[in-house]
Predict the structure.
Amino acid sequence: MEDAFLKQQITESFGNCKAPFYTNIHQISKPYSLTVLVDKYNQLPKDYIPNDLEVIESSFNAGGLLLRHIARIAFENMCQSAEEADIHLEAISTFRSFEYQEQVYLKNKTPDITLEAYQLIRDKVSARAGHSEHQTGLAVDINDLEQTFEYTPEGIWLAENLYYAIQRVKKPLPDMITSPGIIVILAWNYPMRFIKAI
């Protein structure tokens, strides 16, 4: 059932890939689904907050950050496996409410630039509120917010040890190819629902 729901979402979303960002927006009806597709064409409800958010173990989380139960378990297992290889992974950003994502998105907006001009730039590297996987409670930014993270020992370990080392370019199922370049790939962002049991 979840797979059929995901395939429907992907089909609808990829039909939009040639459309400009944030057009033909689909309102997500099952935000609690572990296979929910959230992107520039699929929007979560403004009031959606997962009901199973849990604090990540403090050794992998300096700030009391939250993930959904299943994502927390996967993240902690992955971090424990990394520790065995002398690699330290730490969550630096996880669940974000609609309101908090709006603040993140607009943090560099100044009065001298129009919202439309700002969006043209910001849409390439950040999601608008309601369009961020972080609101699902299933995504985590790990260790560093620099694009060079992928070249660090931690970034290399992640790439070698994840079932799908996907960033924001979606590859939810092995037989589904998506449109890369929807936004700039962020080397530190990993949707936890795709982490294999390590």
User: Anything to note?
Assistant: The mean pLDDT is 77. The first strand starts at residue 26 and ends at 27.
